[in-house]
Backbone:
């Protein structure tokens, strides 16, 4: 195990961790200690924003794990993200207590508004932090396990799987929009007050959440890295490149796929759980199929199958989104749409892949000027 | 009962029919007869008025019905100067008066110049009977039927005598049945010996619609043999109505299915035949809808008389424009991505975002108004079914498009080449088929059909930049459910999903029904990963 850990920590990974640790320490520090006028001061808004990016990066990482290494393109990972978010949101709702508009000791405001008399069964236990945290991992994980078990066992692959994952998140979105589902309907869950007794609006709490997000991203990265460098990882890549051949060699392809799919969903759930307290709201639009496809483009931009790439892609694309929606709101969808086309056509390996290729060219001076090989004769997938 | 009898007796529908008929009745001959009778209403005494009403009733002139109705509604007045009887209607300036017989406009006078013609109960009864006689004895069977129908609805005791007289003379079996039902309803409403009631219940039951139900439910609450019979009849009618309700649901389901079919046919070509995932398919539908909008705008400003044909102009245009955009997309993006379906999916998603935003920038984010031509608006009744014309036309249109497409695939050179390229690309190429060109045309065909779908859908959905988004997932579900590469599968898939959705809706609500259907498809795909009508053979294993 320790050997695997050492193998996973090559110099790039170490560089990644150093960078992440620097961000995790310096950003909150600059926010809390420096006065507002100081040139290096980071505003609370920016802390929340970067914290959000970190959650997105973790989500992108979870998509990269299954798309980049097993070849499963999930268009429904936003669903796992949102489920984790809802689990966290339910805990936060229960923490409001009597401070809601209606001041009901047990029921959240929207239930009082709907004239419900008692807490639905699935809300029990969410007043305990530990229980909510278990649910953050278990609910998306369980859904992914059941879904994956059915889908992979009957060998639903390729675009079929993509389309039914999209249908899955679409169905969940419709379900969560319903008021009588007991998750706040259209408005979702919001007006959170505090987490573990700390006020959510306080700078220190936000700094804490920021650091927690960074740690979660670091841990997620480490887990993925160890996984793909292990023997299991080798099998996963084999499945991606030649599924039937791997099956004929005697590996139980379905089991591997279900395992990774579940792990990935749990990671997405954690990302969602960290996202919700920093943004302050969770509502059914998080389930929108468009969101899930956007995650895929983060991964594609950064470079799939690299683990660094998705993190870079998530931060870059979301920074661009923040910038565009502020400065040129009409242009954002043009830019995003163009990005989809550009990356698939001209940057199939993403930024990290392109850099690696460029690096390879520089280090092997002799071979120069050869075009990146087009997939010449590909057996139809 | 009696005082309100007249106003309840003849609904507006009947009046319209009668007025329409009155306008074609022989004018010159009858005019001479009616005018002096009408003038009798200026008399202050009641007896001459009653006599005049009876004579009008006996005249057999359809215009008398409208006059009597006006009298019953107290719309007839006498002029204070000269005692002329006029029909008056309140307007902003005073009372607009006209001749009750000829309808000739006599200008506007202040209210004070008119004196309302008084009625008493005897006159009201006479009016009712006279109108009954006029309509129930009319030579036109349709008018007699309508009269019987409105008596069934009003169930007025006063009409019984006239009705019996009409019944004795009636020869048309359909009208006779209506009259018997009306008579039975009066009997039920106004009490009779038990055996008459039970017989009447049987007659009313034979109608079997909601009106019959409302006649009978009152009786079914009591005790005794009459109530028993009524209860049985009510259950019988309710069962029958439930059947019709199910038939109505089937129609709604087929209608939804036809919408899904229209949206999915194009996809069945691009996804099913070419294996290209086109996430921008919904946007092609949207473009078709916007083409319709633009065609209608042009027609409104420059050639309003063409409006009824706007859809026929929009159809080929939408096909061409969406098809050309599709070919451009194929040429610019998709042909570089063949064999990489997941990348194609992402790239076309990007294109869909660009197209949406482009339309939003040009036409604005709000819904645009697309008009419905006259021949597509309104509804008709088939038994107890209410069918709206636009849905019926779209149903047939979707079948026509599918049939046309199948013919193209089967009997044209292009269809043959298309199938050849699908089955074995290298072999088709070596036989001299320009595979790249066939790909382009196929993609254009799929997109063009989406454009046509957009024209149809603009009639029943909001035309907004998000139009396509709402169809894309559903259309994929249809194609995947029906089986890829099989147009019959698309048809069966669309209709099954449509009907299933509409049958679940009453029990689960619209949203939950949709969720159930999605979950069902997700489970179904596990069982049959290649859809209902899977292609057999080695191609499947690729």
Residues:
């Amino acid at each position: 195990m320790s050997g695997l850990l050492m193998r996973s920590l090559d110099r790039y990974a170490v560089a990644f961790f150093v960078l992440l640790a620097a961000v995790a320490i310096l950003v909150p520090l600059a926010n809390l200690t420096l006065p507002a006028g100081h040139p290096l001061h980071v505003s609370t808004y920016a802390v929340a924003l970067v914290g959000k990016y970190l959650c997105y990066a973790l989500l992108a990482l979870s998509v990269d794990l299954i798309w980049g290494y097993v070849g499963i393109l999930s268009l429904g990972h936003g669903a796992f993200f949102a489920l984790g978010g809802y689990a966290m949101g339910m805990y936060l709702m229960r923490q409001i207590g009597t401070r809601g508009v209606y001041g009901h000791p047990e029921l959240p405001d929207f239930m009082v508004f709907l004239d419900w008399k008692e807490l639905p069964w699935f809300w029990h236990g969410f007043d305990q932090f530990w229980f909510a945290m278990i649910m953050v991992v278990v609910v998306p994980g369980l859904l992914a396990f059941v879904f994956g078990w059915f889908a992979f066992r009957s060998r639903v692959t390729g675009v079929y799987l993509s389309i039914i994952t999209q249908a899955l998140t679409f169905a969940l979105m419709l379900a969560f929009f319903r008021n009588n589902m007991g998750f706040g309907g259209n408005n979702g869950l919001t007006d959170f007050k505090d987490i573990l007794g700390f006020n959510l609006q306080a700078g220190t709490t936000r700094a804490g959440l920021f650091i927690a997000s960074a740690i979660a991203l670091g841990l997620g990265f480490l887990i993925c890295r160890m996984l793909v460098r292990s023997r299991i990882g080798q099998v996963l890549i084999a499945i991606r490149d030649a599924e039937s051949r791997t099956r004929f060699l005697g590996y139980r392809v379905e089991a591997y796929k279900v395992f990774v799919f579940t792990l990935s969903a749990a990671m997405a759930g954690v990302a969602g759980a960290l996202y919700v307290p920093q943004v302050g709201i969770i509502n059914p639009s998080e389930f929108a199929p468009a969101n899930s496809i956007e995650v895929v483009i983060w991964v594609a931009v950064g470079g799939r199958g690299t683990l660094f790439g998705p993190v870079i892609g998530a931060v870059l694309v979301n920074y661009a989104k923040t910038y565009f929606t502020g400065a040129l709101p009409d242009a954002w969808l043009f830019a995003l749409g163009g990005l989809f086309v550009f990356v698939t056509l001209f940057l199939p390996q993403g930024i990290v892949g392109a850099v690696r290729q460029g690096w390879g060219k520089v280090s092997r001076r002799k071979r120069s000027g050869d075009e990146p090989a087009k997939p010449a004769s590909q057996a139809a997938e | 009962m009696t005082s309100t009898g007249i106003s309840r007796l003849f609904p507006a529908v009947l009046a319209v029919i009668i007025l329409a008929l009155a306008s074609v009745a022989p004018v010159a001959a009858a005019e001479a007869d009616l005018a002096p009778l009408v003038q009798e209403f200026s008399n202050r005494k009641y007896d001459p008025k009653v006599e005049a009403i009876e004579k009008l009733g006996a005249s057999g002139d359809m215009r008398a019905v409208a006059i009597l109705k006006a009298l019953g509604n107290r719309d007839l007045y006498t002029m204070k100067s000269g005692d002329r009887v006029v029909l008056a209607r309140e307007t902003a300036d005073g009372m607009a008066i006209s001749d009750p017989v000829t309808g000739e406009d006599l200008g506007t006078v202040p209210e004070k110049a008119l004196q309302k013609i008084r009625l008493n109960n005897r006159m009201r009864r006479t009016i009712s009977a006279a109108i009954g006689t006029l309509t129930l004895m009319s030579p036109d069977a349709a008018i007699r039927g309508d009269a019987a129908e409105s008596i069934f609805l009003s169930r007025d005791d006063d009409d019984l005598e006239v009705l019996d007289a009409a019944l004795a003379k009636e020869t048309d079996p359909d009208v006779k049945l209506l009259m018997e039902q009306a008579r039975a309803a009066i009997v039920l409403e106004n009490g009779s010996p038990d055996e008459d009631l039970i017989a009447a219940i049987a007659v009313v039951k034979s109608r079997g619609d909601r009106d019959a139900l409302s006649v009978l439910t009152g009786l079914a609450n009591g005790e005794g043999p009459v109530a028993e019979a009524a209860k049985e009849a009510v259950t019988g009618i309710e069962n029958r109505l439930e059947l019709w309700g199910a038939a109505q649901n089937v129609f709604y389901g087929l209608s939804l299915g036809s919408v899904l079919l229209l949206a999915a046919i194009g996809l069945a070509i691009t996804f099913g035949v070419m294996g290209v995932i086109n996430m921008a398919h919904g946007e092609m539908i949207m473009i078709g809808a916007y083409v319709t909008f633009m065609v209608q705008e042009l027609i409104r400003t420059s050639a309003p008389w063409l409006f009824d044909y706007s859809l026929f102009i929009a159809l080929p245009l939408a096909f061409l424009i969406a098809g050309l955009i599709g070919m451009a997309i194929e040429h610019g993006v998709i042909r570089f991505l063949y064999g990489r379906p997941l990348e194609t999916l992402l790239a076309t998603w990007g294109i869909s975002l660009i197209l949406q935003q482009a339309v939003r920038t040009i036409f604005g984010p709000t819904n645009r108004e697309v008009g419905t031509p006259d021949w597509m608006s309104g509804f008709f009744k088939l038994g107890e079914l209410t069918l709206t014309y636009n849905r019926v036309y779209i149903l047939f249109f979707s079948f026509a498009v599918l049939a046309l497409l199948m013919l193209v695939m089967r009997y044209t050179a292009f269809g043959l080449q298309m199938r050849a390229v699908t089955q074995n690309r290298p072999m088709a190429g070596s036989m001299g088929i320009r595979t790249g060109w066939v790909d382009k045309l196929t993609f254009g065909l799929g997109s063009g059909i989406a454009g046509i779908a957009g024209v149809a859908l603009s009639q029943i959905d909001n035309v907004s930049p998000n139009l396509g988004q709402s169809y894309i997932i559903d259309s994929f579900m249809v194609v995947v459910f029906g089986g890829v590469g099989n147009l019959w599968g698309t048809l069966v898939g669309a209709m099954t999903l449509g009907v299933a959705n509409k049958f679940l809706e009453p029990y689960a609500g619209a949203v939950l029904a949709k969720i159930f259907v999605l979950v069902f498809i997700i489970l179904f795909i596990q069982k049959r990963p290649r859809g209902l009508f899977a292609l057999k053979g080695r191609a499947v294993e690729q």
